[in-house]
Design goal:
It is a single chain. The protein has 114 residues and is mainly α. It has a single domain, classed as Cytochrome c-like domain (Cytochrome Bc1 Complex, Chain D, domain 2). It contains five helices and no strands. The chain is globular, with a radius of gyration of 19 Å. It starts with a helix and ends with a helix. The structure holds heme C. The site of heme C has 19 residues, from helix 3 and helix 4. Heme C (HEC) binds next to helix 3 and helix 4.
């Protein structure tokens, strides 16, 4: 009986571990470099995004980017930030030098209230 319970505990552990490892929608290789050259994500937003999306993320040239404005999943916004939007003024930030960890940090930032 005890062995069986132990087996179940291990099984639950494996399932939980498997779920949490597939949970990250985008792979984030850790190259050990500080994000945004050591600046905070809020500072990076302030100097690179706020001109179009607003200081409080209420929108302007680009749409508002507060949690309630973002109905799609993280992978969607990751791609928009990475690739930009063709035919609009939304730049491709991967081309501008951001790596996956930085883009993920921006998506997480947009999910917090300003
Ligand atoms: C030069 C203006 C400009 C700058 C700078 C800019 N954006 Fe945008 N962004 C836009 C526009 C315009 C759109 C809407 C494009 C469209 O009509 O599909 C957009 C769309 C987006 C979207 C998708 C929103 C949605 O609801 O689909 C996200 C997310 C986003 N921008 C994030 C950022 C982030 C993060 C930065 C800074 C790293 C940034 N943008 C900088 C103009 C800009």
């Amino acid at each position: 009986m005890r062995a069986a319970l132990g087996g179940i505990a291990i099984l639950v552990g494996v399932v939980v571990a498997a779920c949490s490892s597939v949970d990250t929608s985008t792979p984030v290789p850790d190259d050990g470099e500080p994000l945004f050259g050591g600046r905070s994500v809020a500072e990076y937003y302030g100097s690179n995004c706020s001109s179009c999306h607003g200081g409080e993320r209420g929108g302007g040239i680009g749409p508002a980017l507060r949690p309630d404005d973002l109905g799609e999943d993280d992978a969607f916004y990751f791609e928009v930030i990475a690739q930009g939007r063709g035919g609009t003024s939304m730049p491709a930030w991967r081309r501008a030098g951001l790596n996956d960890r930085e883009i993920t940090a921006l998506v997480d930032f947009l999910r917090t209230e300003p």
